[in-house]
Amino acid sequence: MKKTKIEDINRNIYDIKNKDEYEFKIKKGLSKDIVEEISAKKNEPSWMRDFRLKALDVYNSLKLPTWGPDLSCLNMDEIATYVKPKTKLSNSWDDVDEDIKNTFDKLGIPEAEKKSLAGVGAQYDSEVVYHSMKEELKKQGVIYTDMETAVNEYPELVKKYFMKCVPVYDHKFVALHGAVWSGGSFVYVPKNVKVDIPLQSYFRLNSKEAGQFEHTLIIVEEGASLHFIEGCSAPKYNKVNLHAGCVELYVKDNAYLRYSTIENWSKNMLNLNTKKAIVGKNAKMEWVSGSFGSKISMLYPMSILDGEGAQTEYTGISFASTGQNLDNGFKVVHNAKNTSSLVNAKSISKNGGKCTYRSLVRINENAKNSKSSVSCESLMLDDISISDTIPTNDIRTDDAQFSHEAKIGKISDKTIFYLMSRGMTEEDAKAMIVRGFAYEVSKELPVEYAVEMNNLINLELEGAIG
Fold it and tell me: For all residues of the chain together, what is the average pLDDT?
């Protein structure tokens, strides 16, 4: 039988790149002077500058992770941690720099806003260049703005929550983020307010040999609800780029949050993102994640179920091809009784790509009558690709229900034969199997919001045999 071949995602749209022009680009490397210069460029209050410097000290005290993919290709002396684009933050799309606006137009962002979104934020390199929100949400007390604005206009809220969910000592790249963060989104949904139409932020890194360190902070108060969408992309360069963003989510009692992410970085990107949610009593946190592109990815969203009856669900898919090592997964800690978690993770690897599912499920002693179910499935499309499952299950009470199921395999010859006996060609049969494998995850993703999301979920499975 001929070797299965599934075409790579067509990146023609995402690999468009503008000239590497900017208003300011900080010198490469990482030092106290660089951190202080970033803070000064932003006219930050002293408490934020001091926070950055403390985070830098933590960064310098921590070692690189000793597990997971090899990160020896990362040299911080070759990374510029702050790039200010040649445009100012605007709430009018017409006022955005023409080159930047054209890039987002081609990615489908303004069109998505017109059709489906309650608010949009767009970040280019290190700064948010556009932000808008529907007037009716403002009247309900919803806050949706960029993080720099939040630091200055809502300092007490930011001080209360900023890097409390994800403290800087979590690991080396969280500390790095704390020192050089820039851009990102701040969302506050007041008590009992239901945001029925999603909000979306899109992050675009254009500059080569640079890093993007956006910070997303979302607070959904008691009884409120929100769906937030995050999209990311970058053109391909021959040198390493770095993404080390941070997402902090606070889902209060009886609240609901769905966080949908499409990470579509180029294959020279190291994606070392950190995401965590704290979930209150009878609240629900849903993660929907698509991980594509990236040379290396280390991404493990986490839910901490602190309130009785708290729930979380994770639905994710990764697709790795030549030269990619995607080390993704999910972490959940049950800290209260009657909590529940449901994990459905899938991966596809081809042409020597490597996918790893790395997870943690911890049910603590006080989490009586809690339930957790984990399912991870991997599909390898050839004999040279790699797929691993590395779960850590820490169950500290007998009064709990836990199940873990893992499946790793190739396309079934018997299934191919059956579909061909029903009149399908071999290539159509194989493409159908891959689409079906991805469907349970892809149906949860908000494909209607942008051209990029449609392309990623369809996975561009044109041609199945080679």
Answer: 83
